[in-house]
Amino acid sequence: MTIPSLLTTISDKVTKNKIAVFERKLSKGTDLLNIEYGIGPYYNGANPSYEFAQALSKHLKIVTICDKNNLTNCFPYSYIQTEMGNKKVSDLKTGVSLQLDSANYVDTAGIVLGDGTPMIFSWNKNCPVSDPDTVEKGQTTACISGIYDLNGSKGPNKFGKDVMAFGSANLGWINFAGLKVGIPFVASGLYVSDYCTKENGQWVPNKEASDAGVNCCEYCRNTGIGKDRWAGAMIECKKAGGHLASLSDLAQIAAYITDSSSQIGDMESTNKPIDSSKLGPLSGLGNAFTLYSSDPYTEDDVYGRGGSYTYNRTFVIGPFPYSRICMNCGDKANTINKALCVKD
Questions:
Q1: pLDDT by residue (tens digit) across 195-239?
Q2: Are the beta carbons of 166 and 148 closer than 8 angstroms?
Q3: What is d(CA 271, CA 218) in angstroms, rounded to the nearest whole number?
Q4: Which domain holds residue 73?
Q5: DSSP for 64-104?
Q6: For residues 66 and 242, what is the distance between their CA atoms, to the nearest angstrom?
């Protein structure tokens, strides 16, 4: 073996051993908790994950417990690198932020194990009550999902490298409706001067905007309303290695979650409500939502894409109980416009 390949083999083995040690310790702690209390929805307060951590600390050596508003006191750095950009640790307050179903995973909590391993997790509040005698040993971690860092504060602090997921948690792309998508987000509003420069009296997109297929919004002024969130979404998705969902992508998602054959441009209800059980990790969107589309209503469309006044580039699913997909919906769904990235 060559030296580089030997080092890679050693590194992979060390990582696997560290993962095995973490899983063994966590499983042992939840096994003991199960023997004493059973694994079930006993944590029904305002912060069930925090309450679960307190109960677990009686059976697993935990040196620090952090509630969802103080996660950086448990995770020793502020950002986690992911393939979709940096994730702020302080933003990982809910199950949705870990790409978990909001119907089951509400809040998060942080802990630091006795060996220094930091962890952020969410407790499944709908985990069924279990008889301690019927739960197999080693299966008692099934009610929690989260992330942990194999080497504490040491770098690279990168998801999939030293920051690992357990359970159903994820900080990367999600397989959904036949696509790979990210968690929907509220895009940052950009002034035209943030992504364009003026040349000979004309606004010209910079390289970042040009690479993302963004033209300069001549109507987006330097005011709160004039911030261009669509441009921000396009650029953020490109940085993440994907693209802002197209009308075709969104029609595919709409057809999946409504169990219908809705097509691009449909203006009428699909006669079927959203099947919330199919939303899974996207359930934070709720029963009515508006998503930006990368496709313009007209080829030269730039008007009205700033702030909450985006019309021609939005794609609406809702309002409850009927589902609708359309291209020029205006404000028919009374929700804030969000962005959804799809992996290229």
A1: 899 899 888 999 999 999 988 876 665 444 457 778 888 898 998
A2: yes
A3: 39
A4: 3-172
A5: EEE-TT-GGGTSSSSEEEETTEEEEGGG--BTGGGT--TTT
A6: 34
Mark whether 162 and 219 lie in a shared domain: no
Q: Are residues 148 and 197 in the same domain?
A: no
Residue that finishes a domain, picked among 141, 172, 203: 172
**203 and 167 assigned to the same domain:** no
> Does residue 168 share a domain with residue 185?
no
> Which position has the token pair 């040349």?
199
- Residues present in the chain in total: 344
Cis-peptide, bond into residue 156, ω within 30° of zero: yes
Q: What is the pLDDT of residue 332?
A: 38
| Of the residues 172, 196, 225, the one at which a domain ends | 172
Ramachandran area for residue 167 (φ above 0: left; ψ -120 to 50: alpha; else beta): left
Is 159 found in the same domain as 84? yes
Residue 269 confidence (pLDDT) above 50: no
Residue with tokens 């307060």: 45
- How many CB atoms are located within 10 Å of the residue 258 CB? 22
Same domain for 106 and 47?
yes
Ramachandran class of 312: left when φ > 0, alpha when ψ lies in -120 to 50, beta otherwise: alpha
Whole-model pTM: value is 0.69
| Number of structural domains the chain divides into | 2
Q: Are residues 141 and 185 in the same domain?
A: no
* Amino acid identity at 249: D
Other residues' Cβ atoms within 10 Å of the Cβ of residue 154: 11
Kindly report the backbone phi and psi dihedral angles of residue 6, in degrees, each rounded to the nearest multiple of 5, phi listed first: -65, -45
pLDDT at 116: 94
How many angstroms separate the CA atoms of 206 and 193, rounded? Answer: 10
Q: E strands along 220-340, which residues? A: 242-244, 289-292, 314-317, 337-338
Q: Rounded to an integer, what distance in angstroms lies between the CA atom of residue 33 and that of residue 157?
A: 30
**Taking a C-beta distance cutoff of 8 angstroms, is the pair 295, 221 a contact?**
no
Task: Show the beta-strand stretches assigned E in 98-220.
Answer: 109-113, 118-123, 144-149, 163-166, 174-176, 179-181, 196-199, 202-205
Domain shared by 242 and 184, yes or no: yes
